[in-house]
UniProtKB/TrEMBL annotation:
GO biological process: methylamine metabolic process
Record's keyword terms, sorted: Membrane, Transmembrane, Transmembrane helix
Residue ranges constituting the Methylamine utilisation protein MauE domain according to the UniProt record: 125-218
Membrane topology, record value: Multi-pass membrane protein
TM annotation in the entry: 20-37, 49-72, 78-97, 109-132, 177-196, 203-223, 229-250
UniProt superkingdom: Bacteria
One Pfam family here: MauE
GO cellular component: membrane
Subcellular location: Membrane
The keyword Kinase is annotated on this UniProt entry: no
Protein name: Methylamine utilisation protein MauE domain-containing protein
Cited InterPro entries: Methylamine_util_MauE (IPR009908)
Organism, as annotated: Singulisphaera acidiphila (strain ATCC BAA-1392 / DSM 18658 / VKM B-2454 / MOB10)
Length: 412
């Protein structure tokens, strides 16, 4: 066997291991979040494009079953390229029909799957490496601000060290700040180390430490986030180990004809767009999750309030996610808890998508519901200050939704 053939076969084996790990993990997460994809409970959906058709009832279950079958064939290696293409197509259509389905792990599957389908093995692995490096660096950069230090970063630190009997509130402020900033700086360091060949194994070890720490913080002994989050972090550990734990040749001439296929061109264009656009996430060029602003505190926020005077008119489902009334008798409605209870995943964090949910709640009651929506913009990196917009009632919520570039109104 000559060197070129060996290199190509080596890359193919590594690609197959990545395909199996990605397919298996996505299958598990899809099954865990099945209510998100099947429209079984009437949970409002906010499509990316107004009027986008949606499969309802039995048709939604059949589409979801077809998606699972396509991923199962992909994972098993049965006509995997065609199966993966079909799975990517179904998943994309389902996401276009509901913004809340655009979960970070679904986005990652779409991008890595696109590379596996469209590019030769060695090149798919190279682009996959750049994808993970970009994810780590943008995730780290998204946390280098005042809001993370005061909010989520502090919560993460307290959760991480409390089982050890430590209390960060008693630490000197500089020490506490350094400990909080260690996480985003570690993420950026992981990305740099993974890119540089001489430090790649060190970067791999650091990435595994990072995800182990996240499992510690987010797991049942910490913040008790959903099982899907834990599966995703565990899967990323496996995928990073596959991508960076070995070094296939990246210029296998045996794939020269495949490399010239037209399908590789749009895949590369989409890939580089996905890598570059997160630079403008704070200025609205890209949403938080596709911008890799994961567990960042600066992202947009939406607060929904229902008036206590109409408590008896609300369904038990809505009542169960209302907090105690404040001094003005308004009760805050927890959108994320509602979504997790009904669908197993958090809501899409963009203001337009959450505004669509608030509009759907108000529309259920024909505009009679006393409902208030407060939209907070991105937090300033240095001061943490946000813009604030408040609207009261169904018509005001609809007018607010009209101001977004993408659709913010619920289907139906």
């Amino acid at each position: 066997m000559d060197l070129v053939a060996f290199a190509s076969n080596d890359a193919g084996r590594i690609r197959d291991r990545l395909r199996i790990a990605l397919g298996l993990a996505t299958l598990v997460m899809l099954v865990l979040s099945w209510p998100l994809w099947t429209n079984r409970d009437g949970f409002p959906r906010v499509p990316f494009v107004a009027g986008f058709p949606e499969l309802m009832g039995l048709a939604s279950f059949l589409a979801f079953a077809a998606l699972l079958a396509a991923l199962a064939f992909t994972t098993a290696g049965i006509a995997w390229r065609g199966s993966l293409t079909l799975g990517l197509g179904i998943l994309l259509v389902l996401i276009l029909g509901d913004q809340h389905r655009f979960q970070p792990w679904a986005y990652q599957f779409l991008m890595i799957g696109l590379l596996l389908v469209c590019l030769p093995p060695a090149h798919a692995l190279t682009y996959g490496r750049w994808w993970f490096a970009a994810l780590y660096v943008y995730s780290g950069l998204s946390k280098l601000d005042v809001s993370f230090c005061n909010e989520l970063g502090n919560l993460f630190l307290v959760t991480a060290v409390r089982p050890l009997g430590l209390e960060p509130a008693a630490w000197p402020a500089p020490a506490r700040m350094a400990a909080i900033l260690a996480m985003p700086l570690w993420e950026i360091g992981v990305a740099v180390a993974l890119i540089v060949p001489k430090t790649r194994r060190l970067g791999l070890a650091a990435a595994l430490v990072l995800h182990t720490a996240l499992l510690w913080i987010l797991g049942p002994w910490g913040l008790r986030h959903s099982t899907i989050v834990l599966v995703w972090n565990g899967a990323m550990m496996v995928e990073v180990a596959i991508l960076f734990g070995s070094t296939p040749a990246v210029s296998d001439e045996g794939d020269a004809s495949k490399r010239r296929r037209w399908v590789g061109i749009p895949a590369r264009v989409l890939f580089w767009a996905a890598v570059i656009l997160p630079l403008g996430e704070r200025w609205g060029w890209l949403d938080a999750w596709p911008g890799h602003a994961l567990y960042a505190s600066h992202v947009e926020r939406t607060e929904v309030f229902l008036h206590d005077a109409q408590w008896e008119e609300l369904t038990p489902e809505l009542q169960s996610h209302l907090q105690a009334p404040g001094p003005d008798s308004w009760r805050r409605f927890d959108l994320t808890a509602w979504s997790r209870a009904a669908r197993g995943v958090p809501v899409y964090p963009q203001g337009r998508a959450c505004n669509g949910l608030a509009e759907a709640i108000a529309a259920r009651y024909g505009g009679r519901l006393l409902i208030k929506v407060v939209q907070w913009g991105h937090a300033d990196r240095w001061t943490g200050r946000r813009s604030r917009v408040e609207c009261l009632g169904l018509e005001a919520i609809r007018r607010l939704g009209n101001g977004y570039r993408l659709n913010s109104h619920p289907a139906g």
